[in-house]
Write a structure and sequence with these properties.
The chain is an alpha+beta fold. About 20% of the residues lie in helices and about 20% in strands. The strands form two sheets. Strands 1-8-7-4-3-2 form a six-stranded antiparallel beta sheet, sandwiched between helices. A two-stranded antiparallel ribbon has the order 5-6. The structure holds zinc ion (ZN).
């Protein structure tokens, strides 16, 4: 168990699932094996919530916060736990399978994941101050992003990854992930460094993606 289970939430009806953040879940290829490690460097910076009362919404491209490098989390406080709970709620409402703090305007190095995109299914993971320590293999698959609704493109990612992170209890742990879970983690980790999946789309998808991003930045004006 990577993170303590958060409270169960009421389930919003999902009438027309749109699998932003990488298509429908596929548990058959979503391998996961946690192991704990306490080799953890101290984190020098304290982060602050942009919104001190509650996180209200997902920010969208081209909001500049999506391009900022997030700061390490210095301490796991009640405020952090509450914010993480709200991030899960936003992710499920979307629905999505991963959400990084910069996507809610919060410049902190943490993200949440549930490959099932549903509060009553799959498993909830919280990755704080995560660091990818190993990568192997390569696969292409379509990705989307809750911060860039309606845009999807094929992205090359490592098939297997190894990662270190801190959980909500403040414990450093290490995981090996593959396929879908590895892809989600790599996508969310990129958000912490201001990198969007659209930066990494395949050459074949690039012209179409650039056209779509252009139309988001300069939407057609009503006549
Ligand atoms: Zn994203």
């Amino acid at each position: 168990m990577l993170a303590p289970p958060l409270r169960k939430r009421s389930v919003l009806p999902i009438l027309a699932p749109h699998w932003y953040d990488f298509g429908p879940p596929d548990f058959a290829t979503s391998g996961f094996s946690p192991s704990r490690s306490h080799a953890c460097a101290p984190h020098p910076f304290r982060i602050h919530l942009y919104q001190t009362e509650s996180i209200v919404q997902i920010v969208h491209y081209p909001d500049p916060v999506l391009r900022q490098v997030a700061a390490p989390v210095a301490e796991i406080t009640e405020e952090i736990r509450r914010a993480v709970g709200e991030m899960f709620e936003l992710m499920y409402e979307a629905p999505g399978v991963g959400l990084a703090a910069p996507q809610v305007g919060w410049g902190a190095r943490l993200f949440v994941v549930n490959p099932a995109a549903h509060p009553d299914e799959g498993e909830e993971y919280v990755f704080i101050n995560p660091k990818i320590t190993g990568k192997k293999g390569a696969t292409f698959a379509d990705e989307g992003c809750l911060s860039i609704p309606g845009v999807m493109g094929s992205v090359r990612r490592a098939k297997w990854i190894q990662m270190e992170a801190t959980d909500l209890e403040g414990n450093r742990f290490r995981i090996d992930a593959q396929d879908l879970l590895a892809r989600i983690i790599q996508h969310e980790q990129d958000h912490l460094d201001g990198i969007l999946f659209t930066d990494k789309v395949s050459d074949a998808d690039r012209p179409d993606i650039e056209r779509q991003l252009e139309s988001i930045q300069s939407p057609p004006q009503p006549q």
